[in-house]
Amino acid sequence: MMRFDPFREIEELTQRMDRAFGGAMNGQAARLAPPIDIHEDEQGLELTLDLPGVSPDDIQIEAENNTLTVQGQRRYDRKEGRTAHRVERAYGTFVRTFSVPAKYDLTKVEASFDHGTLTLHVPRSEAAQKRSIQIRTGGQQLSAPKTVDAEQGDQTEQSQE
């Protein structure tokens, strides 16, 4: 199930308006806002950004205070003696900022860049990992440990094999 993201809706509307009015509004060039996919599994988050035409040297990634920021620049190669009849692709700088819940460890972010796609892996923090905890009653250990999810604090029975 996809979560409602009002900022994504606003960004998509802005991009549609830019395209509808010839890619420029008030004399400014169309904004570069790379699309992103965000997936989550038991290991953590995976953020994938499409950055065609952007050099890895022009990308900066910062993680601070539960915020992950990706910024960069797609350069327009303007050559002398050549006339541009149409320029629809967005050029310039971009910044995408994401709030990351505390259950993820921003000190261990890994980034890879392949064929214009930037992939960021943000692992779950050690404190948020599920683990089995043995329960002792009256000095004896129960046969089935309880699994405690640090995120939700609920308990589910799990057999140990």
Describe this structure in words.
- Residues 27-138 form the SHSP domain.
- Belongs to the small heat shock protein (HSP20) family.
- This protein is mainly β.
- It has a domain at 36-77 and 88-142: Immunoglobulin-like, CATH 2.60.40.790.
- The chain is 9% helix and 37% strand.
- The strands form 4 sheets. A 4-stranded antiparallel sheet has the order 1-2-7-6, with no helix packed on it. Strands 3-4-5 form a 3-stranded antiparallel sheet, with no helix packed on it.
- A hairpin with a 3-residue loop joins β1 and β2.
- The protein is elongated, with a radius of gyration of 23 Å.
Q: What order do the SSEs take from the amino end to the carboxyl end, as H and E?
A: HEEEEEEEEEEEE
The radius of gyration is 23 Å
Identify the CATH architecture of the domain at 36-77 and 88-142: Sandwich
**Which strand order do you get reading across the main beta sheet?**
1-2-7-6
The best one-word shape is elongated
CATH topology of the domain at 36-77 and 88-142: Immunoglobulin-like
What is the helix tally?
A: 1
Count of beta strands = 12
Nearest-integer average pLDDT = 80
Quote the distance from N terminus to C terminus.
Answer: 33 Å
Low-confidence stretches: 24-29, 153-161
Share of residues in helices: under 10%
CATH class of the domain at 36-77 and 88-142: Mainly Beta
From the helix content, strand content and strand pairing, which structural class follows? mainly beta
**What can be said about the biggest beta sheet?**
4 strands, antiparallel
Beta-strand percentage?
35-45%
Domain SHSP: 27-138
Biased composition (Polar residues): 131-144
Family: Belongs to the small heat shock protein (HSP20) family.
Protein name: Hsp20/alpha crystallin family protein
